[in-house]
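re: ur question from yesterday

yeah so i grabbed the chain u mentioned. its 288 aa long if i counted rite. heres the sequnce exactly as i have it in my notes:
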Amino acid sequence: MSKQIRQVDVYSKRLVGSSFAGNYKSSFKGQGIEVADLRPYVPGDDMRSVDWRTTARKGDLYVREYHETRELTTLVMVDVSPSMQFGSAARTKAETAVTLAGILMYSALKTNDRFASMVYADQVYQLLPFQKGEGHWYRSMKSLIEAYDRGYEKPSNPTDMLAEVLLRVPAHAICFLITDELPSQAVRNLRMAGRKYDLVVLNVFDPLERELPEFGVVAVEQMETGERGLIDLGNKKVREAYGQAREGKYAQFVETVRQAQIDQLDVSVEDDVASLLLQFFQLRQRRN
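ran it thru and got these structure tokens back, copy pasting raw so excuse formatting
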């Protein structure tokens, strides 16, 4: 485990320089607004800004003045269900998720912002508190890697996970959801989370999941259920049927995100994760 953490640590420190962290910070809105001062009411002020407690105490109308705080609070939610253990290339989806989480939390570390991590499968298994500092980054990475090593056997349930997030995480946080599965029934909670937070879904996939090679008869296992069987990859119809099923599943994933009106970034296990994130941050900067 310590070797994995060191690898992500070295990778993050090498790539997340001031420029990368700056792009990360400026790509997202501030934590929100906070009261900066109180002053007497003048005609034209928004009555919703009246501080009624001060008004009652002083006998005259007083309004609250606000300013935006640029401190960000970042939450990285990571799916640790069995399907994330799949990998046909140099990295598994789980290893890609660990790298993504490491870079995102290290970006928050570099900008002196608070961050936290959550691991979930069929339920939330751990939500670390929001804190700052390098020690907290190491604790978060250790927690995530331990979760994958533990090997949870239940499929992911993002609907219930998001319901818990909505109850436990304060508004205006920056939230990253790293997963390979997003059922249509999660739309309502995704939309609610998208309104309360600045939410981005990172869809991790393996190229073999998108297109099967012509390979002959192979043994396969459904990682979420443990069901095993044989599949003839030399059969064109089998490959086409698989391709159609996967396209349908991906289309449903995209539609779920679209209906929730949040951002999605597809991340292959073969991608240069840091470059992909930097491009995404720069795109959000221009859009904002």
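noticed a couple things. Strands lie at 32-40, 62-69, 73-79, 114-120, 124-127, 174-179, 198-205, 217-221, 228-232, 263-268. also The mean pLDDT is 84.
anyway ttyl
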